[in-house]
Structures are given as C-alpha cells and as structure tokens.
Amino acid sequence: MKSPFLKALIGRIRAEDSFGAWENKPDEWLLRDYVVSREEKRAMPIISDPDPDVVSRVEHFYQAVGLAVEQECGLMASPMMKMSHEGFGRVILTTGRLVIFSKTLRDVHRFGFENLGVLAREGTKAVQMALDIIREYPEVAKA
Fold first, then answer.
1. How many structural domains are present in the chain?
2. What pLDDT, in 10s, does the model give residues 61-96?
3. A Pfam family this protein belongs to (predicted)?
4. Which of these, 26, 29, 77, 129, could form a disulfide with 66 (CB 3.0-4.6 Å)?
5. DSSP 3-state helix, strand, coil percentages of the chain (rounded to 5)?
6. Domain range spanning residue 17?
7. What contacts 120, CB < 8 A, 6 or more positions away?
C-alpha cells in the first residue's frame, strides 16, 4: 500500500467521494473491486459489454498512472481513453507533445488483478514505462 502508484490510485478514488461516505473506509476496501480472481474471470463471458463501474475503474487506473508520473517528474501526464461499447479500445498518456504510454484495451469487462500486489506492480510498471519515455525525449515532453 506504500507504492506511489497505489497512493495515487487511492487518492483518485477518494477524490470522487464528495459526500464523505468512504472517509472511514480503509484503503484496501476502496481497492476491492480491482481484485478479480482467475476463477471470477473464467466465470465471465468471453464477449460482453463492460458496465459503467468497470469503465470507471479502468479510467481511474490510468488517471492514477498519470498522477504518479506527474508526482515523480513534475510534468502533467494526461490520459485519453477511447473505448467501444464492446470493451475494446486504446488508452494513451501524453505530456507536452509526447505520447508517454500507449496500450490497447481488450476484454475490459474482465479488467482486474489477482491481488493488490499485482495491481501495484502493473501500475508501477506503467508509470516506469512512461517515465522512461520522458527521460529519453525530455525536450518533447516539455514542449
């Protein structure tokens, strides 16, 4: 729970709680929907439309990646996501004139991670990939 990515994700989720309903809830409780076991994924249909809650979780995940990048290097990283109603699409993060992260989204209705450790690892990996691109092209990132 101490990774910069998880802190950013928790902060992003708590920012949506305008009425304070989650104020006393532990961080693990806020992240519970991100944990989807292999058995749960297998029980889901192969093709399905994602519900709005799942789409919101995907958006929060990549917003947290952008927030963690910004906290690390000081450059604002903006996520943009385009997804079909069937759960296929793409997410990119940009800073300046540079695309720092790009990922094709598939089977979004099955979005989730086996446990919180995997969630932290995958989020941290995305942040690190984005930071590596910024370090490689700093003049474009600052443009």
1. 1
2. 999 999 999 999 999 999 999 998 888 999 999 999
3. DUF269
4. 77
5. 50, 15, 30
6. 4-141
7. 1, 3, 5, 6
